[in-house]
Design a protein that fits this description.
By secondary structure, this protein is an alpha+beta fold. The protein binds 2-oxoglutaric acid (AKG), fe (ii) ion (FE2) and zinc ion (ZN). The site of zinc ion has 7 residues, from loops.
């Protein structure tokens, strides 16, 4: 998560849950199937039900068969249903002082049995499995028009610029995934040309463009904007869009974070 240039509450910043008896955290996987750490600082206990990623297909089939859409609604799980559908699960009690490590892609449900406080944050495991799982969910989210909060593409570019984990399986996956990002950077520039939207280096922008920005059109698949950010100076409510959503008019300028030459050079030097 150190390669994520922005602060994301509950993800790379600690989040706190204050609970009364019977309080429930509904079923979910973490954003982009990151792992997470959870410490119960008591005094009460929590009961957890977890389904490890190796069984994710079974739980997702169960949810689909029962018209439960985790992106759109909250849901609790019935242990009898898990048993009846042959879905393996882990159930355990987290006492005061116990630390739970929620693995990659693990669906989990948490119930407090007394008054207690939990602190938690996400952990991006620095390995190929985490990255591959996160990348699949990233694309799945885009397909579902669901916003991916963890800015995976900028994080991978930061890894490339810093030479993180060079020579490993992780680096090989980063490089494979960034081929399409590199192509997209060029396609975005071509789109700007076709739409006759001027492209200016981001360093020259008079607007403060956040390090990690999303297109403000809610109808957009809203992948994290990386290299090209369109700004409409007359749209105060939603000035930032992707180049595809940018209107063709003279109020729009596209700001480019890195030159194609720099990106290609960093890309070539990383393996
Ligand atoms: O403490 C809780 O109720 C659940 C927190 C959680 O979802 C997590 O740590 O990933
Ligand atoms: Fe969680
Ligand atoms: Zn857009």
């Amino acid at each position: 998560m150190e390669y994520c240039d922005t602060s994301l509450p509950g993800i790379n910043e600690v989040q706190m849950y204050l609970k009364s008896p019977g309080g429930r955290t509904p079923g979910h996987v973490e954003n982009q199937v990151m792992a997470s750490i959870n410490l119960n600082i008591g005094p009460g206990d929590c009961t957890w039900i977890c389904i490890p990623m190796m069984h994710i297909a079974k739980i997702e089939k169960y949810l689909r068969d029962n018209s439960i859409f985790p992106y759109a609604s909250t849901f609790w799980i019935n242990e009898e249903d898990l048993k009846a559908n042959g879905i393996p699960y882990q159930k355990f009690v987290q006492k005061k002082g116990d630390l739970v490590y929620v693995g990659i892609g693990t669906y989990h449900w948490v119930q407090s049995n007394g008054y207690c406080a939990n602190v938690s944050w996400n952990v991006a495991q620095m390995d190929a499995v985490q990255l591959m799982a996160s990348a699949i969910i990233h694309d799945h989210n885009a397909e579902q028009r669901y916003t991916s909060i963890v800015p995976l593409v900028p994080m991978m570019w930061n890894m490339v610029m810093e030479g993180e984990s060079k020579g490993t399986e992780l680096a090989r996956i980063v490089k494979k995934l960034l081929v399409s990002s590199l192509a997209k950077c060029q396609i975005e520039l071509d789109t700007a040309t076709v739409k006759k939207i001027p492209v200016v280096p981001m360093a020259d922008s008079i607007y403060s463009i956040p390090q990690v920005a999303l297109c403000s059109r809610m109808t957009c698949p809203r992948p994290t904007l990386f290299n090209l950010v369109a700004v409409n100076k007359n749209d105060e409510a939603a000035p930032i869009t992707c180049i595809d959503c940018a209107h063709v008019n003279s109020d729009v300028t596209a700001y480019q974070r890195y030159s194609m030459n720099d990106l290609v050079e960093w890309f070539d030097a990383y393996h």
